[in-house]
Amino acid sequence: MKRFDPEEAITQVQREFGEHGGVCPSISRSSTFTVMAPETMPEIFQGIRSPEKGGCYLYSRHFNPTVDVLARYLSAMEDTEYAVCTASGMAAIACTLLQLCRQGDHIVASRTVYGGTHALLADLLPQWGITVSFIDPTQPEAFDAASQKTTRVWYTESVGNPTLPIADIPILSRKAHARGITLVVDNTFTPMLISPAVLGADIVVYSMTKFINGASDLLAGAICARRDFVHQLMDLHTGRAMLLGPTLDPRAAFDIIQRIPHLAARMREHGRRAMIMAEQLQDWGVAVAYPGLPSFPQHAKLNAIINPGYGFGGMLTIDCGTQKRAEALMDQLQNTEKFGFMAVSLGYFDTLMSCSGTSTASEISPDEQCAMGLSPGLLRMSVGITGNLDSRIEQLRRALQQCDMIKT
Ligand code: PLP
Questions:
Q1: In a shared domain, residues 177 and 287
Q2: What is the pLDDT of residues 114-150, one digit of tens each?
Q3: What is the largest CA-CA distance in the chain?
Q4: Full residue range of the structural domain in which residue 333 is found
Q5: For 174-193, what is the mean pLDDT?
Q6: CA pair distance 118, 129, nearest whole angstrom
Q7: Residue nearest to atom 12 of ligand 1 (CA)
Q8: Alpha helices in 298-406 (DSSP H)
Q9: pLDDT per residue over 370-379, tens digit each?
Q10: 99 with 115, same domain?
Q11: What's the CA gap between 361 and 364, in Å, rounded?
């Protein structure tokens, strides 16, 4: 059977030309749209018509032509029927969970998720009567064991933030569907590399702020799903995306549209460089974790689900032992070596580094951090694609030597 190829799928999207035949689509900035026939407006409000159901655009918090172009790219890339783009990754996650769950419902979630997602699940949703059990994402049986009669959603990241555990999406989707549960997967770390919906996930969410945009100059999110779920989210009277209103600005959508065609090339280069750095770090005896290394605990599992030809991603971690040493290493790498930036986030064309326990995972209690294997000295690195790789490795070597982490 021919494997799904997201890069190829994107090229099949109907090309949207600009107003004057431009090779770039036009940016449609209208907040509201003219309805030409009076009977159309009530039909749009009743859900009988939408832009794709013989209607027209109504209001840009509902659907917007430019944002829809991006949604078409996203749904092609994920092989889902449709997609909604949102103003941030957190908006995509929150709207999805609030659409799927009501007061009294329960979620089983991976304990190794981005700190903001963890806080939403652990603190905010319970205040609204939605309870959450956290489990180890690498153990599909743990999802079963934690499920209750009221469980509506299993939630995981395909490659977890920050310690990079791999979720076995095919097994999870089979198990979830046998119980009538919706599997939601955050694929922020691995666009192109992993296609969660092709592997059986029901809904794929993204922070497009990261690799998909790739320039760290805007925030955006996406929800890729079946058409009926997108229409639920966008229902004019009840849809969570419609009512909470985290709409993506058409100008930001346009910027991402222009960067989607080189996402595959960027992912390959992030992966190529991260692999070479990880091998080098391993040779030096540094405690590196990278999913592409055969020594990585779920390397074989990842190999079984990954789309071939895109590498193993741009994220690696170095366990420096203590927070102090991780900070010293980042200081050297940024301020002495000009190797990259001490900054949260990921997927930028330059290297970004942060000490996860005290930054993006700081919402998570020390006990929970311990349970997810997050050491206080864990330095998370999003490997960039700029500059000469040999020079980068030299910079890394000197910085590690300065911090007494290697002898060579
Ligand atoms: N999902 C993951 C895996 C993330 O790492 C992040 C942010 O770091 C988010 C979601 C939230 O995305 P955003 O900052 O675009 O709201």
A1: no
A2: 999 999 999 999 999 999 999 999 999 999 999 999 9
A3: 77
A4: 263-402
A5: 98
A6: 16
A7: 89
A8: 299-305, 323-331, 366-371, 389-402
A9: 888 899 999 9
A10: yes
A11: 6
CB 130 within 8 A of CB 103: yes
Q: Are residues 163 and 274 in the same domain?
A: no
55 CA to centre of ligand 1 in angstroms: 34
Q: Where are the alpha helices (DSSP H) in 80-185?
A: 89-100, 115-119, 125-127, 140-146, 169-178
**pLDDT tens digits, residue range 347-362?**
999 999 999 999 988 9
162 cis-preceded (ω within 30 degrees of 0): yes
* Joined tokens for residue 324: 């102090």
Q: For 27-47, how does the pLDDT look when each residue is reduced to its tens digit (9 = 90+)?
A: 999 999 999 999 989 998 888
C-alpha 249 – ligand 1 centre gap (Å): 18
The count of domains in the chain is 2
Q: CATH code at 323?
A: 3.90.1150.10
Nearest CA to ligand 1 atom 4: 114
Structure tokens at 284: 């030096």
Give pLDDT, residue 46. Answer: 87
pLDDT band at 15 (very low <50, low <70, confident <90, very high): confident
**Cβ < 6 Å from ligand 1: which residues?**
88-90, 114, 116-117, 157, 161, 186, 188, 207, 209, 219, 221, 345, 360
* CATH number of the CATH domain containing 99: 3.40.640.10
- pTM for the predicted model, two decimal places: 0.97
Question: What is the number of helices (H) and of strands (E) in the chain?
Answer: 16, 12
Distance separating alpha carbons of residues 357 and 342, to the nearest angstrom: 14
345 C-alpha to center of ligand 1: Å?
8
User: In the prediction, which pLDDT does 344 show?
Assistant: 95
Pick the last residue of a domain from 241, 261, 281.
Answer: 261
Query: Cβ of 29: how many Cβ atoms within 10 Å?
Result: 13
**φ and ψ at residue 5, rounded to 5 degrees:** -125, 100
Reported as a single tens digit per residue, the pLDDT across 245-264 is 999 999 999 999 999 999 99
